[in-house]
Design a protein that fits this description.
- By secondary structure, the chain is an alpha/beta fold.
- The chain has 13 helices and 11 strands.
- The strands form 3 sheets. It has a 7-stranded mixed beta sheet. A two-stranded antiparallel ribbon has the order 7-8.
- The radius of gyration is 28 Å and the shape is elongated.
């Protein structure tokens, strides 16, 4: 069982755990202070941080406190009715989805610890809208409780900056509008942050990116900044200062695989299956749209052809059983108008000739 510490529970860390941490070459301050002073934000600092993260996994050590996660939980569960919105970008295949899942799971564990509940009460696979999946977004809006962690994966598909008027984008806007009242922690993932609608970019609290992937080590290194928009003529001006905790400014954060936390073992596999299914649905939808776009028939003609295919056998059967079947009876059985019934009868008679 892997222990996940916060800045409060770490005070009860056993001496044996402290000895194991120091034996692994990890500064004890990483746990007791909730951060590691890496010096200047350069390549050497990144390397030292990567060694610490690697050794934590290698020696099966507890997960250190995350003041960033605690700040989000403070915000979504505190007295003021606030939410937290974050974008996470990075090149395809770099591990954005897994990083977001870890952050959401870590949030859920922190919230559950505070209120004596199960982490899955705050984040589970049902809280993930994958790819376009507009229906899933609407389901989340309808079903997710307050203070949930929500992931909109590949948000550039469902909230693209070139598709501002689509139903998908309108649904994403509903997520944005619902966030505060539901007090959610929402992450939007995409390869490049500018791929998503401007409205979302201007309303997020933080912007993260995968600074460097350490897939062999089982983690990603993230860089996170806050996001503030100041209205200035002729356009808004964005500021992205670093987050500050304990009187220090923070540059980097570690995102492990969510599976290392006991509450979410096996999550990655089920998430991959759901994502593959979402990709298949998206491809199928695009294929249908392309086929419809290339179909020379009008919508009225397509609808009529579908009605003929579906209802002609019903009318044909009624006429075979009683050639004098009243038109009104056929209309009640099929829902067609008198004009369409007569047209259908003409087709059936034409088939016999």
């Amino acid at each position: 069982m892997v222990t996940v510490y916060n800045t409060h529970t770490v005070k009860d860390m056993s001496e044996s755990e402290k000895d194991a941490i120091e034996a692994a070459g990890i500064p004890l301050d990483t746990y007791l202070k909730g951060y590691t002073d890496l010096g200047s934000a350069n390549g050497s600092a990144v390397g030292r941080f990567a060694v610490i993260a690697t050794n934590i996994l290698k020696h099966n050590l507890p997960i250190p406190p995350s003041p960033f996660t605690e700040m989000i939980v403070d915000r979504t569960t505190g007295f003021d009715k606030q939410d937290f919105r974050e974008t996470l970008d990075g090149p395809p295949g770099i591990g954005k989805s897994y990083s977001a899942a870890y952050k959401a799971g870590r949030y859920a564990i922190e919230a559950a610890e505070r209120f004596g509940q199960d982490p899955k009460d705050y984040f589970c696979k049902d809280n993930c809208a994958l790819l376009e999946d507009t229906e899933k977004i609407m389901q989340i809006l309808d079903e997710a409780d307050k203070q949930q962690a929500i992931i909109i994966d590949d948000a550039g598909v469902s909230a693209g900056n070139r598709d501002f008027a689509t139903q998908s984008n309108k649904n994403i806007s509903k997520v944005i509008q619902t966030c505060r009242t539901k007090r959610w922690y929402v992450q939007f993932n995409m390869p490049v942050v500018t791929h998503i609608d401007l409205q979302i970019r201007e309303l997020v609290t933080a912007k993260s990116r995968v600074f460097k992937a350490f897939h062999a080590g089982g983690f990603n290194l993230l860089k996170t900044n806050s996001s503030h928009i100041r209205a200035m003529f002729p356009k808004n001006k964005e500021y992205n200062p670093r987050f500050e905790f304990f009187g220090r400014k923070f540059d980097f954060w570690i995102a492990y695989c969510i599976d290392i936390m006991d509450a979410y073992k096996g999550f990655s596999e089920s998430y991959d299956k759901a994502r593959d299914a979402a990709a298949d649905r998206l491809i199928h939808m695009i294929s249908n749209e392309e086929r419809d776009a290339n179909d020379p028939r009008s919508k009225t003609m397509k609808r009529w052809d579908d009605e003929v295919k579906k209802l002609k056998p019903i009318i044909q059967k009624m006429l075979q059983e009683d050639p004098k079947t009243p038109i009104k009876h056929m209309m009640r059985e099929t829902g067609l108008t008198e004009y369409k019934i007569n047209k259908m009868i003409s087709i059936i008679r034409g088939d016999k000739q």
